[in-house]
Every structure is written in C-alpha cells, then in structure tokens.
Specification:
The protein has helices at residues 7-11, 27-38, 50-60, 72-75, 78-85, 110-138, 161-181, 202-206, 208-217, 226-237; strands at 18-22, 42-47, 63-66, 89-94, 141-146, 186-193, 248-251. It has 258 residues and is an alpha/beta fold. Strand 5 (141-146), helix 7 (161-181) and strand 6 form a beta-alpha-beta unit. Bound molecules: NADP nicotinamide-adenine-dinucleotide phosphate.
Length: 258
C-alpha cells in the first residue's frame, strides 16, 4: 500500500484544505504552519512581522497576511484576505499570544490587563466569528486555540494573573463554541502547552536557576519543543480528531499531572 492510501496516513491528511495560523512568525505558530502545509493544507500565516511571514509563506507555498491582531479593526481584514487569496478557511489555529506584564497580581497595570485579554482572548473569538460563515458554507471546520497550563493551574514564582485569565477564558470559549457550532460540524478545541523554549520563554531558559525550576517541575526528563505541540494540533485540526470537540488537551510533559 502506498503511503497516501494508508488509512492511518489519510487520517492526518489535509489535502487542499485552507488553514489560517496566527502567531506564525515564530515559535509554535511557525511550527504548526509548516506541519499543516506538510499535511497538504494551503496555509495563511498571520502575525505582525511581514518579513518573517513572507519567508515562511514562500517556503510552504502559503499566503502571508500581516496584521496586528490586538487591533479589532485591522483584524477584520484577515479572513476576507485569506478567503480571496486561498479560498474558504476550514481550519483556524489561534496561536498568537503574549504576556504583557510580569508584575504580581496586585500591581498588574490595567493597560497590560486589557492588552493581554485583547490579544489572547478577544482576537481568537473575533477570528472564530469571521471564519464561522465560511465553515458553515463548507459544512465543516476545525478551530484550535492555544492556551497554556497557566489557564488551569497557578505557576508559583512566575506571576501572570491576566495571562492566566485570558488562557482559562479560551477553554471556556472553546466549550461554548463547540456546543453552539456542533450542528454545523464545526469542532472547537484548545491545546494547552506547558513550557517550551520560544521567544516568549527564551529568558527563562537562559537563566540556569529558572531552567532548573522548569526541569524539576516537569516529570518527563527532557525539554519540550514546538514539535511536541504540533502533533496535538494536527490531530485536532483534521479527520483523526473528527469526533473531538470542546476539549482542552494539555501537552506539558506531565507538569499538571503531579
Ligand atoms: N512557549 C511556551 O512555553 C508557551 C507556554 C504556554 C502557552 N504558550 C502559548 O503559545 C502561543 C505561541 O507562543 P510561542 O511560545 O510560540 O511564542 P512566540 O514565539 O513569542 O510567538 C508568539 C507569536 O504571536 C505573534 N503575536 C504577538 N503579538 C501579536 C499581535 N499583536 N498581532 C499578531 N500577532 C502577534 C508573534 O508574532 P509578531 O511578533 O510577528 O506579531 C509570534 O508569531 C502563545 O499563545 C503562547 O501564549 C507558550
């Protein structure tokens, strides 16, 4: 049997499906965009840094859409641009996110709280609203949000109250959208990563003390990588995860299992 006819391979195939991946200019989003393209999807990559997006889009035969997702008015142009450039989106991966303050909860500035919620929670909802009519027209769709284990457990020593609230909010949003949109065969899930090295967490891994803390709290005896998250996203995006909806799947090397 040739690989393309193997039923297991077929489950993960995304031939010709149009996917949008936000936060694709680095880290997890970039790895997810490459993996979806590798599975056959036509991928639109979204973030602010045009040069990086253009390079990635060239490499995977996709479409670069530069946008500041914290600005709801600009965000409104993303899905129409993808629909025009590639066709109706069937997959949306909301990976863009950031942490705007490391102050303790009692001192988090209101501006940082608002920016965190705007990018990490409001933008995924607005993008989900924007892809909804396309997914309805296609008769199916898969939305995968990227949250964090801090949406589920407190992380001692690394203050992140508004970030945690935004990520927990994604899980609530996921369950509600899953129930409301199931009748359109639109599935909505969330992947909650533990710690892995990226631009956001680089300073943590570069500090021997902080890296030791991460190692001590992670049962699996190695550092996580973006590729560890990609498998879960691929599963949820395509037919292999076809009966999974409303779930938050934790990928954390066992951090929250202790
Ligand atoms: N690394 C971890 O340990 C970890 C753990 C738990 C959860 N996460 C989550 O995983 C996701 C990916 O993070 P990462 O670790 O891969 O970090 P990263 O490398 O810093 O990636 C963040 C991405 O978000 C984009 N982004 C940030 N602000 C944006 C804005 N205003 N508009 C549009 N795009 C914006 C960035 O691109 P531009 O700067 O080009 O806009 C970048 O592509 C995030 O949601 C993060 O919260 C990460």
């Amino acid at each position: 049997m040739t690989p393309e006819h193997d039923p297991t391979t077929r489950m993960f195939a995304l031939d010709g499906r149009v996917a949008i991946v936000t936060g694709a200019s680095s880290g997890l989003g970039a790895a997810v965009a490459r993996a979806l393209a590798g599975a056959g999807a036509r991928v639109a990559v979204v973030a602010r840094r045009r040069d990086r997006l253009a390079q990635l889009a060239d490499g995977i035969g996709g479409l670069a859409v530069a946008c500041d997702l914290a600005d709801p008015e600009r965000l409104g142009a993303v899905v129409p641009a993808v629909a025009e450039g590639l066709g109706r989106p069937e997959i949306l991966v909301n990976a863009a996110g950031n942490m705007f303050t490391t102050e303790r909860a009692e001192a988090e500035p209101l501006d940082a709280v608002r920016r965190t919620l705007e990018l990490n929670l409001v933008a995924p909802l607005l993008l989900a609203q924007a892809v909804f009519p396309h997914m309805c027209a296609l008769g199916r769709g898969s939305i995968v949000n990227v949250s964090s284990i801090s949406g589920r457990v407190g992380i001692p020593g690394i203050p992140q109250a508004s970030y945690a609230a935004s990520k927990a909010g994604l899980s609530g949003l996921t369950a509600e959208l899953a129930v409301q949109w199931a009748r359109h065969s639109i599935r909505v899930n969330t992947v909650a990563p533990g710690f892995f090295r990226s631009e956001i967490t680089g300073p943590l891994y570069d500090s021997e003390r902080a890296a030791g803390y991460l190692r001590r709290h992670t049962p699996l005896p190695r550092e996580g990588s973006a590729d560890d998250i990609v498998g879960a996203v691929l599963w949820l995006a395509g037919d292999a995860g076809g009966y999974v909806t409303g779930q938050t799947v934790v990928v954390d090397g066992g951090w929250t299992a202790r």
